[in-house]
Fold this protein.
Amino acid sequence: MTTRRDWLRKSFLGLGSIAAADLLARDRGLDAVGKGLTKLHHTPRAKRIIYIFLEGGLSQIDSYDHKPALEKYAGKPLPESIRPPEFTFAKQGTVIPSPFSWERWGKSGTYASELFPEINSRFIDDLCFIHSLHHDSNDHVTAKRVLHTGVPIEIRPTLGSWLVYGLGSMNENLPAYIDITPTDPNRPTGFLPTKYGGTSIDRPDRKSPDLAWENLESQFPDQERHIDFIKQLDELHSPDTELNEMELAFRMQTEAPDLLDVDNESEATRKLYGLGGEHTDEFGRALLLARRFSEAGVRYITVNHATPRYGNLWDQHSELEKGHRGNANAVDKPIAALLHDLKVRGMLDDTLVICGSEFGRTPTFEFFDGITGRHQNGRDHNPHGFTTWFAGAGMKPGYHHGQTDDFGYYAVKDKVDIHDFHATLLHLMGVDHEALTYFHGGRDYRLTDVYGNVVEEIFS
């Protein structure tokens, strides 16, 4: 016998799983699960976050962490004072200098390489840098998990899921957390209910430039009348969370298609983001969607750059210059366009933009392996000291926080660990990281576990 619940699932062609990403509780608080928040701890600086994630490991010492010692020690081993960690993926060789030219940019005089000329020439004075981010996870899988959830191995909720759980949605017709072109689709929500997870947007197939939600299909005939009928049935029973999710799915069908259609943007905007460009079209579309969804009230958006076109993501174990140049060429113009677009719309004041990777790179080259000793002209993974930048939402413009050693290997001054990073982001959204908890397995959990200090120095 087909139950009402089963009929609902089949009728909506899987849309319930998409709608489940949205909080049913709205801005005024949480549902009854966990301790939750009844109000904001303080006035938030940011209403929303757009996290630009450059997967694979952007080299900090080839982008924004200038180290003249790399030139001085080129071809030589690291000095005794800089000892490589016990674990590395490959045998490391001598120091290699940056293949990119460096200069000072903007009124702040920020030293940066030539990798991102659009961003640097137009927005370097709007950026706030943390140069001392660090953790201990050396492989991509655990490093990404640490960056997004705070722990390397155990499945925990992401920062986005915690924010949705704590703050709810700003648009009842859209999910509060969207993950654009994810490399890890449907990131698990850990112990939080699945309704707090991210909704993935990707291309229907790899040959199409379009980005779409899976299962977001046209309404079947008389769909609204079907929902009204189900509501009448539901009044005879206890409230059905699944029905609420289906209602959200129905509402999404009226708003989401227009948001996904970037062709209705002006030609000037499409050109600004690089749509139609050989290298910039894909990421330009993704960031244009991010602006459109954030403007429509989506609270947390991740935009992932992970195309193997110019090497293996940003993971240049070999051909460092070619790989980084190609990847930077794909993202530089779209990122600058996003910053410009948010700024002229007055949104950058309360939108936090973050850009970074799961870790950085080593100052030494690596061999292909210890047997052949073949020179790879690339850099290994380095989670011990790397750079992430921020813009908007009251961040201190043109400011540089923290420092790595002379070779960019280890964070040595004003170190910022992942729990500090997450505590700071929650603070920007008006949340006390120690107060946002969820009861699970006999104790209260939080994103920052029992750690974390807000890095207040980066606030203007």
